[in-house]
């Protein structure tokens, strides 16, 4: 087990987002976090990332976890001056030893950005930007990555490329994946398990058994 969540509750002032969530994630699993708009998926992720404190309950990652996080898609100004490579390097040590450069090269190759690494981030496509965020997160050598709506606003080809990449990271590098999405067909194609957050409660199961009428 890589994550154990116990009786987790979150309230903003008088608004209860969710109450007494209980679930576990297995090491090496690939889980889609599903649910209608505004049910608290981002709130749950922010709690797990330590960015918000829950009002009640607890969660525990296994002691050897190294988390990577790909935030919800943010528009980058078209004038943004850094190249894709320089953007990825924001998460690398300032002093670029040969070893650091090699690690950056490896993640750029892994995320299929080598041909366009000198393109400005402001000019990159949505899929390229999203892969640059992923490359940034991979520089820390995570064994678990959390992606928040990484495929929203991408065209079908860019979605497939990103999902193929995530599947590769899971299968070849044994990275546990938690992936927030609204795209149920995409989740059915690529993810093995689901967590479904709705009306303050959570359900868990195998993606192949997920019923659309939960929505
Ligand atoms: N800082 C905050 N203060 C008050 N209410 C908040 C705050 N953050 C989120 N909420 C509320 O909590 C609820 C859950 O929001 P959250 O963004 O987690 O939902 P979500 O499931 O990620 O939605 P979406 O699918 O639209 O991204 C919403 O009703 C939102 O308005």
Automatic annotation (TrEMBL):
InterPro entries per the record? AAA+_ATPase, ABC_transporter-like_ATP-bd, Metal_Ion_Import_ABC, P-loop_NTPase
Is Ligase a UniProt keyword of this protein? no
Q: Which SMART domains match?
A: AAA
Residue ranges constituting the ABC transporter domain according to the UniProt record: 3-215
- Give me the segments passing through the membrane: none
Tagged with keyword ATP-binding: yes
A Pfam match: ABC_tran
Which controlled-vocabulary keywords does the entry list? ATP-binding, Nucleotide-binding, Transport
Which Gene3D superfamilies does the entry mention?
Answer: P-loop containing nucleotide triphosphate hydrolases
Family listed: Belongs to the ABC transporter superfamily.
Full protein name: ATP-binding cassette domain-containing protein
């Amino acid at each position: 087990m890589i994550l154990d969540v116990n009786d987790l509750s979150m309230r903003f002032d008088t608004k209860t987002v969710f109450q007494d969530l209980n679930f576990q994630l297995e090491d090496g699993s690939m889980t889609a976090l599903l649910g209608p708009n505004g049910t608290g998926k981002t709130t749950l992720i922010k709690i797990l990332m330590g960015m918000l404190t829950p009002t009640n309950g607890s969660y525990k990652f296994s002691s050897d976890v190294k988390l990577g996080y790909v935030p919800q898609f943010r528009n980058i100004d078209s004038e943004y001056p850094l190249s894709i490579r320089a953007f990825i390097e924001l998460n690398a040590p300032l002093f670029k030893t040969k070893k650091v450069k090699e690690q950056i090269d490896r993640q750029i190759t892994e995320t299929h950005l080598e041909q366009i690494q000198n393109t400005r981030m402001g000019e990159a496509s949505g899929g390229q930007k999203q892969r640059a965020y992923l490359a940034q997160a991979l520089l820390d050598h995570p064994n678990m990555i959390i992606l928040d709506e990484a495929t929203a606003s991408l065209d079908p080809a860019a979605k497939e490329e990103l999902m193929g990449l995530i599947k590769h990271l899971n299968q070849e590098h044994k990275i546990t994946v938690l992936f927030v999405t609204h795209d149920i067909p995409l989740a059915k194609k690529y993810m093995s398990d689901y967590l479904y957050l709705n009306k303050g409660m959570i359900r868990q199961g195998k993606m192949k058994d997920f019923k659309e009428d939960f929505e």
